[in-house]
Amino acid sequence: MSLRDQxxxxxxxxxxxxxxxxTSTLRMIMAxxxxxxxxxxxxxxxxxxxxDITAVLRGxxxxxxxxxxxxxxGKRQDLVDKETAEIALIESFLPQQMDAASLAAAVEDxxxxxxATSVKDMGRVMAALKQKYAATLDMARAGAxxxxxxx
Length: 151
What we know:
Layout: H1 3-17, H2 20-40, H3 50-73, H4 77-91, H5 100-114, H6 122-133, H7 139-150
Helix pairs in contact: 1-2, 2-3, 2-4, 3-4, 5-6, 5-7, 6-7
């Protein structure tokens, strides 16, 4: 089942169950995906792939995490709770992320495969990681590990 189908199914269930928060979040997700579809049209793409949708969802999660930090500083617990609930719903559509040990092993494999020896080679290592583990890899965490490993 594609991510778009999952969104539609969950939206119908949320609407029937009267879950207004989930309904709102799912509509927001679908609107963001639609915006990405429209942005891709000049490239000749009518609908973005599930991998592209996953990237959109990761961006949404990142944006909400940044908002949570600001709301915590502003002592707005109501907004923290709202954003946290949205993060949980959005992440339910994302593939399971690598744990720390798997991430470290993946970084070691990528460094060995690319023959990287210094921070100058970081781009090649990150490209190799993205190509092989894009769906299950947190690129920010991977970038920090690669930098530490090569630095």
